[in-house]
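Thread: Newbie trying to understand structure tokens

Hi all, I'm a second-year student working on a class project, and my supervisor (Dr. K.) asked me to get a predicted structure for one chain before our next meeting. I've only ever worked with sequences, so writing a 3D structure as a token string is new to me. If someone could post the tokens and maybe explain what I'm looking at, I'd be very grateful. Here's the chain:
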Amino acid sequence: MHHSVMLDEAIELLAIRSDGVYVDGTAGAGGHSRAILSRLGPTGRVLSIDCDPSALARLAGEPDMGVDARCTLVQGNFADIEILMKTAGVQKISGVLMDLGISSTQLDDPERGLSFSHDGPLDMRLDPNGPTTAADIVNSADARELCRIFREYGEERHAMRVARAIVRERDVAPIVTTARLAEIVSRVVGRAGKNHPATRVFQALRIEVNNELGSLEDGLTGALNMLEVGGRLVGISFHSLEDSILKRFMRRHEGTWESLHAGGEAWRGETPCVRRVTRKPRVPTDEEVQRNSRSRSAKCRAAERVTDLTDKEMAGAARRHHGA
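---
Reply by user tm_fold:
Sure, no problem. This is what the structure looks like when written as tokens:
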């Protein structure tokens, strides 16, 4: 069974209004969408986005999903949230939630090729219509490019050794299954600690196949552009790369006061402006980790859209800040 990670914390941070319009940027198994719906009145609305058509088909067939006039299922990547929302007739949203983890349903399906625990085709596409599979990359990229992927997206210490081993092995026969790739990586890395030796390589390939970090950057920008003043942006990440993007994005849009050589201060930052709701990320409770071990690395951050400062207002605020 799929358990929505940090469900209570995410819903609390969204600060849901009964008449608001909310976006679940990664619908998955629908847990977060259902929780939002349960807090909406008859005029509230949820738009649930997912790039996986099979996930949306399952949600549409679930009686407890609450798919009615208040809920719209949208197939697409949350990187395109502005286009998707405007196509759905939505101009502004009251809140958006991005749960960046893959669902248990996807992870446990051997045909998706996302896990080293089940042998299956080396696919890893979250959108089955995506142009590139993990097998395409593993069997065509040179050792230097494979090393970059493993080091940049998986933070794998043995990235070059793994890359060279893959190149040697694919000269014998193409690498087309998860079991064979996991076996190759395991021989190079060796087992140390509780994590499988192929964990970082599989993570890196999944991120590359689905352009996950680029999609996150685009999705955050689009979501913030769509948020009304007072609306909340909530993100749940599962590894340090995602969390760093969330943290930096919120900091940039929160801005900072910078001292000027001539005296006084000026506000520096990107617009639209936000107020960080979480200075430090929320993490799962011990009880949740015991109940669902996949939640152990989760971090949740939130920011609230505020009114932008014009150049004139910023100059006035700087003067008031110093009593000038």
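A couple of things are worth pointing out once you decode it. The chain has 14 helices and nine strands. The chain has a mean pLDDT of 89. Feel free to ask follow-ups in this thread.
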